[in-house]
Amino acid sequence: VRLVESGGGSVQARGSLRLSCAASGSTYCLAWFRHAPGNDREGVARSYTGSGSTFYTDSVKGRFTISRDNVKNTLYLQMNSLKPEETAMYYCAARRGGGVCSLLPGKYNYWGQGTQVTVSS
């Protein structure tokens, strides 16, 4: 599975960005993670490929939306009302096979190269 992220950039606080992740190959679930310097990699949202069921970490609920275009095999993350503390490298990740798709990095087999999101105050 190959994952290629795009859509990162610089935005002011309370602004919006939409990240994209083009996936090649079949996946069981896809997720977005972020990693800021000095912090652990944090799971943001995940989506089961088959059912489309989604889950979000508490801090982004109501502001971020994960979605998927199955025709384009592309995962999206719409991020609204961004905060400076959400400045990080954002990664797309994929898991093949079954099981539970949590927001733990170790559950994912494939990772993209990341796209930088910078939120200024």
Q: What is the share of helical residues?
A: under 10%
Report the sheet with the most strands, covering strand number, pairing sense and barrel closure.
7 strands, mixed
Instruction: List SSEs in N-to-C order.
Output: EEEEEEEEEEE
What's the total number of strands?
11
Measured distance between first and last alpha carbons: 37 Å
**SSE-based structural type:** mainly beta
Number of helices: 0
* Contiguous uncertain segments of 5+ residues: none
Tell me the overall shape. globular
Work out the strand percent: over 45%
Over all CA atoms, what is the radius of gyration? 13 Å
Assembly type of the chains comes to single chain
Mean pLDDT, nearest integer? 95
Describe it for me?
With 121 residues, this protein is mostly beta strands. Helix content is 0%, strand content 51%. The chain has no helices and 11 strands. It starts with a strand and ends with a strand.
What's the topology here?
Layout lengths: L1 E5 L2 E4 L4 E8 L4 E7 L6 E7 L5 E3 L7 E6 L4 E6 L8 E8 L14 E2 L3 E6 L1
